[in-house]
Design brief:
Structural class: mainly alpha
Number of strands: 0
Distance between the termini: 21 Å
Number of domains: 1
Keywords: Membrane, Transmembrane, Transmembrane helix
Largest sheet: none
Helix content: over 70%
Shape: globular
Oligomer: single chain
Strand content: under 5%
């Protein structure tokens, strides 16, 4: 690999983080505006009503997403049984798929029995806060672990800021959002921002150290699948009524996320040796 290609990969990685950060901040601003001024929404009306982009291609989009996620979880477990590779990571991914599947199943039942429910709750219960906190923690904790691993922050500082960010994220939902149908969008926005913003601020692309940190972890499959997830996250709320619901709606997100997660796990082999070398750099 030449220095030029290394620097190009580092720069592309950096601007991918910048794009993710700006996109999510823009989406969040439009979302807040749409909730504050419901008669002048910037997001699709059906998305604001349902919290998801429900597609006419399916009798119940949530049921189909639930079945897809369950199938992905089973495939992950079969992969572990047949190959015994990436065992811990694959089991974690399978657990996520099964939890996501259950969430869609629960939403499917509620939608079938009660219809769309976008009302504001009087308060968010302790159980919901704990579950939300556990899911949201994926973002800041994973980012903190990465920054600590490459020597960008000390362990106490990294996890300390991660905990503060997590607490703030839970508080914003519990105090301001309080709409169960918007939980998934909030989770997506928070996790993406909790990963991209700290990386954009703390890992540049001009110093030799930052270039190597970014270039060592750069893989085209990871970048492209991550951008696919970001694209669907943006298209679902903005263009649900325009075209998104006619090509699968929220099912597109589940498919893009499944692809991204599997690529991330399968491409993680061999990175530990690279990361160990990064810690020794001055």
């Amino acid at each position: 690999m030449t220095m030029t290609s290394t620097e190009s990969k580092a720069k592309l990685s950096f601007y991918t983080d910048i794009l993710s950060t700006i996109s999510i901040l823009f989406l969040s601003t439009c979302w807040i505006y749409s909730l504050s001024y419901p008669n002048q929404p910037l997001l699709s009306t059906s998305f604001l009503q349902n919290g998801f982009c429900l597609s006419p291609l399916f009798d119940n989009t949530h049921y189909r997403c639930s079945q897809f996620d369950a199938a992905c979880g089973i495939l992950c477990l079969l992969f572990v049984l047949l190959t015994n590779k990436n065992k811990q990571a694959m089991i974690g991914v399978a657990s996520y798929f099964f939890a996501h599947s259950y969430g869609h199943y629960d939403a499917a039942v509620s939608l079938a029995e009660e219809g769309a429910a976008s009302e504001v709750l009087d308060h968010v219960g302790v159980k919901e806060v704990v579950v939300l906190g556990a899911i949201l923690s994926i973002g800041p904790m994973a980012c903190a672990a990465e920054l600590i691993e490459v020597g960008k922050v000390k362990k106490g500082v990294g996890y300390g800021w991660a905990v503060l960010g997590l607490a703030a994220g839970v508080a914003v939902y519990a105090v301001y959002i309080r709409r169960p149908c918007y939980a998934l969008l909030y989770i997506n926005v928070f996790i993406i921002l909790a990963n991209s913003l700290p990386r954009a601020v703390l890992i540049g692309y001009t110093t030799k150290r930052d270039v190597q940190i970014r270039a060592e972890k750069f893989k085209w499959a990871n970048v492209l699948s991550g951008l696919a997830v970001l694209a669907v996250v943006m298209c679902e709320p903005f263009f649900c009524d325009g075209f998104t619901k006619y090509i699968g709606g929220h099912a597109l997100f589940d498919a893009a996320l499944a692809l991204n997660m599997l690529i991330e796990v399968l491409s993680s082999d061999g990175e530990k040796s690279h990361d160990a070398g990064l810690k020794k750099m001055e």
